[in-house]
Design brief:
The chain has helices at residues 63-70, 93-96, 120-130, 137-150, 167-180, 197-214, 225-231, 249-254, 259-266, 307-311, 338-341, and strands spanning 8-27, 32-49, 52-56, 78-83, 86-87, 103-106, 185-189, 217-221, 234-239, 242-248, 317-318, 324-325. The chain is α/β, with parallel strands linked by helices. Strands 6-7-8-3-9-10-12-11 form an 8-stranded mixed β-sheet, sandwiched between helices. A 4-stranded antiparallel β-sheet has the order 2-1-4-5, covered by helices on one side. Helix 3 packs across helix 4, helix 3 (120-130) runs parallel beside helix 5 and helix 4 packs across helix 5. The longest helix has 18 residues, at 197-214. The protein starts with 7 loop residues before the first strand and ends in a 10-residue tail after the last helix.
Length: 351
């Protein structure tokens, strides 16, 4: 992690409170609602200026839905989203439109997210024109040239089509398009998962450099914990629509305080083949988000579950040093907590 990254803890750029997104299930002759998919069910977090918060978890846990709901690509079922001190979740489309400049997104697939019928120059010019950021055509050309410099692509490439670029180059164009609006927050929705390993490292390093230069706040959605450990400041772990643990990078990777986090970390391969690492594979399947289990949602797969876990849903509480966990194990004596008795996971670093 670059030491150049500075966080302004005095300013919360993005604040999400009790975010919910429930998708209705239609059935019957008249398409009536017969149930709901509880994709996101009460998620809260904040991001400071210059900070990266990574949202991690298994596929289907709801992390991408959180990103799309924050961006207002989905209407919210409940909760609040505050951007730069202004609530945006209840704004009508006309009022929200100029505020969209402050929060932009880099999607997972760099090819399908770029218009194949537009040259790179027009792709980058579109957000600049939409938000009225250029004074004239000369200023527009200057801005586009600077964007190409920022993402380390040659300026003359603006006259090419998206299909003429490699996957990594297309993702750089996607990043440049997000930067064109001069945002305060960027949501990276699995932004490196479709790329080769060597290209992943280049894109991650680029994002870190841009964050240090521009003071960007980032919501980095990923399932790749090795990449997350390399670039994040804090990590929020999701399971079945809820956040079960939030901690600073070193805290979470050094001493997880939730059994689900512990299992995720134990499953990550370490670069050293001679390293000894205790595996704690998860048992069973993820329950249906249509009928989440009562009590702790993880109790059906947790090796430490006891009666209270099956009846009472744990709250996300501070367990010390700003580390938050939603687990009843943390309410008992430390000497009886298996999460504290176990050997800490072997540290690993992204290549």
């Amino acid at each position: 992690m670059s030491a150049a990254l500075k966080i302004d803890t005095s300013q919360r750029v993005l604040e999400v409170t009790e975010l919910k997104k429930h998708f209705p299930i239609r059935g019957g002759l008249f398409g009536t609602t017969v149930g709901y998919v509880y994709a996101v069910d009460g998620v809260s977090f904040h991001i400071h200026r210059g900070e990266t918060l990574s949202l991690v978890g298994e596929s289907g846990c709801g992390k991408s839905t959180v990103g799309k709901a924050v961006l207002r690509l989905y209407p919210l079922t409940g909760g609040q989203v505050v951007l730069n001190g202004r609530r945006i979740d209840d704004l009508p489309a006309g009022t929200l439109r100029p505020l969209r400049r402050q929060i932009q997104v880099v999607f997972q697939d760099p090819f399908s997210s770029l218009n194949p019928r537009m040259r790179v120059r027009e792709i980058l010019a579109e957000p600049i024109r939409n938000f009225g950021l250029a004074k004239d055509e000369a200023d527009l050309d200057r801005r586009i040239g600077e964007l190409m410099d920022k993402v380390r692509l040659p300026r003359d490439a603006v006259n090419r089509w998206p299909h003429e670029f490699s996957g990594g180059q297309r993702q750089r164009i996607g990043i440049a398009r997000a930067l064109a609006a001069e945002p305060d927050v960027i949501v990276c929705d699995e932004a490196v998962s479709a790329l080769d390993v060597s290209v992943k490292a280049q894109i991650v390093n680029l994002l870190q450099d841009l964050q240090a230069e521009l003071g960007l706040a980032m919501l980095f959605i990923s399932h790749d914990l090795a990449i997350v450990e390399h670039m994040t400041h804090r990590v929020a772990v999701m399971y079945l629509g809820k956040i079960v643990e939030v901690a600073e990078r070193t805290q979470l990777f050094g001493r997880p305080r939730h059994p689900y986090t512990e299992a995720l970390l134990s499953a990550v391969p370490v670069p050293d083949p001679t390293a000894i690492k205790e595996k704690k594979p998860l048992q069973g399947d993820v329950p249906s988000p249509i009928r989440p289990p009562p009590g702790c949602r993880f109790h059906t797969r947790c090796p430490y579950a006891f009666d209270r876990c099956r009846k009472e849903e744990p709250a996300l509480k501070d367990v010390g040093g700003g580390q938050f966990s939603a687990c009843h194990l943390n309410d008992g004596p430390a000497e009886q907590n298996p999460l504290l008795l176990n050997t800490p996971p072997t540290a690993f670093r992204a290549a």
